[in-house]
Amino acid sequence: MRSRRKPPCAAHLIILILCSLLLSTTVTARPFVLVLSQDDLKDGPVDESPDDPSSVADWDEFGESDARSDDDLDPGSWRPIFEPDESNSNSAEEFPINPQLEEYYSSVRKMVAAVSDGGRAMEDVASEIESAAATGNPHAQSLLGFLYNTGMARERSGAKAFMYHHFAADSGNMQSKLALAYTYSRQDVYDKAVILYAELAEAAVNSFLISKDSPVIEPVRIHSGAEENKEALRKSRGEEDEDFQILEYQAQKGNAVAMYKIGIFYYFGLRGVRRDHAKALWWFSKAVDKGEPRSMELLGEIYARGAGVKRNYTKALEWLTLASKQKLYSAYNGMGYLYVKGYGVEQKNYTKAKEYFEKAAENEEAGGHYNLGVMYLKGIGVKKDVKLACKYFIVAANAGQPKAFYQLAKMFHTGIGLKKNLPMATSLYKLVAERGPWSSLSRWALEAYLKGEIGKAFLLYSRMAELGYEVAQSNAAWILDKFGEASMCMGESGFCTDAERHQRAHSLWWQASEQGNEHAALLIGDAYYYGRGTERDYDRAADAYMHAKSQSNAQAMFNLGYMHEHGQGLPLDLHLAKRYYDQALEIDPAAKLPVMLALASLWVRRNYANSFMVDLIDSLPGVYPKADEWIKNVVMEEGNATILTLFVCLLTVLYLRERQRRQVAAGGGGGGGVAPPPLRPNDNVAPLVN
Ligand SMILES: *[C@@H]1O[C@H](CO)[C@@H](O)[C@H](O)[C@H]1NC(C)=O
Ligand SMILES: *[C@@H]1O[C@H](CO)[C@@H](O)[C@H](O)[C@H]1NC(C)=O
Ligand SMILES: *[C@@H]1O[C@H](CO)[C@@H](O)[C@H](O)[C@H]1NC(C)=O
Q1: CA nearest neighbour of 465 among 403, 533, 520
Q2: Ligand 2: which of 352, 356, 357, 382 to mutate, most ligand atoms within 8 Å of CB?
Q3: What three-state secondary structure class fits 677?
Q4: What are the start and end residues of every segment in region (Disordered) (predicted)?
Q5: Whole-structure pTM value
Q6: Is any atom of ligand 2 closer than 6 Å to the C-beta of 358?
Q7: How many other CB atoms are found less than 10 A from the CB of residue 299?
Q8: What is the pLDDT of residues 431-449, one digit of tens each?
Q9: Residue 190 lies in a domain
């Protein structure tokens, strides 16, 4: 007898890419998880990728020597308003720039001011923007799209927003491209979304911010669940943060690691610190005097980029070599890059470059894997091997290397190296695209929030929300919920009415929940369940809870169980209800108490259908769908056991009283003071289900 052949090992190959870009302890949305199966990997001959000389900045170092500035990459950026650059504003006075841009920036400025003034200011700006848009100013068109999308000083209209973003995108406004791409991907029009996101991702890859230490540049979530995220906010206070001040003190006392860290904060503009290359350079230079290797590598990068200094590849190589001698393997990436390009060295030497990249890769430097991937993808110094390239990219992506996501997205997009998969390509490109220069909006929003300028913060988050940033969507929605009128939300005329505010919050939470934010999905579910800010609708509530359930959210499971138990929005089904309750418990042991209460009530319901006990349970305050709050408010204060015991005692006492009452009624009195007969739980009611 032939035993069935085991499938080849490779068929079980599952590659998990945990997108560490989104990983952070405070994140409520699940991290993006990319699961590649053997099916995604192409078998058989691989199509030759056409050499694509236009693709730039493939190397994981420094970008190209003629890299474009963030402002070039994001025309119409709001940077001049939120991060005015003194040297630029001077030169602007000498050479009056494009009057279209002047007009546009004046409108943005007025719009930001209008948020705090209220009244008719916003309507005046809107008219100004509208007439500029009518003359074909793409940036004004993009703004007008924003007004229509949000319903500020204009009647909310998705169609008009789409139209104006379309015009603006056609004329090169990148933020409108992002808004369009997001709209298309929401409608599953992937063939259009993917093209826009690809272009945006390429721009992002070319931007400075994509480089190192990127996780910290992610938009900050200002709330966690319903509460303000104090920890994250504290860490974003820049130079005012106590930790930063302690670090600075240590650096001044001569601690080289502290010097390096301060330098990094200034170099990338992390944690609310304003980017300042001069200060970064100053601290790195002090740190290298003490032999701090990572600062040497950064100096190498600074000289190769010419960031705030005159570009000098010779110096770059010197610093990188020094760093590599101290066993800082990531420095080999930079050296390899210089050899690929022939910068600062006698001549190009691909063999040497490859040796360096391998050295980095052997020491688990994601950049090394990535660069080897590029060599094999393009056949530089090696025989072209797209499959091998793909493997290297997957390793690098697993380590959170954003450019590797970009390469994998390209493979899914073109079908070279991986099976064509447009939805997958879209979501990978989106991850990368969202790190482009436009992500600075989030920094300004946070700055405004920390300064207590809620209206400004809300405006900026609203803009990012329409560009598809999940974090901004939930931040904006949270501000609306938390601050109410103080959110300075601008409506169709003047400040938002309550209805407008609720409607807007609802739509923002909805979008965030679509993008996998569990908290948002629960809020949406609750909104439909209780009819808050929308019509009560149990079906939609169930839908939303299902959404959160698919992400293994214990509370969603619990709520689904509850809805099955009561036949709200879902068929009355006590079996299923129990299954959901059990699952909730499996996922989150902290849900033990509410689940036990729910199971107890389910048990009563099964065994005492139509009895007063069921009414009793139903009349218990609507705590069940709010298990979370319940746990917080009651259990944490009083302790589980007490509450549970009380509940059980209450049920027992009530049950005994009921028995007694019936017996008195049946037995014609005289039974007072007699101990109740032993319990026979199933004696009077036919069980509903078993
Ligand atoms: C670049 O640096 C090297 C070594 O430090 C120096 O000799 C050279 O003059 C510099 N080149 C320029 C153009 O500044
Ligand atoms: C390139 O580097 C390799 C290995 O380091 C070396 O053996 C070779 O001679 C170099 N080639 C040239 C042309 O310098
Ligand atoms: C409540 O129950 C959970 C899970 O059983 C347990 O971890 C926790 O310590 C309990 N809390 C109190 C206050 O008893």
Answers
A1: 520
A2: 352
A3: coil
A4: 41-96, 666-690
A5: 0.73
A6: no
A7: 25
A8: 889 988 898 899 899 989 9
A9: no
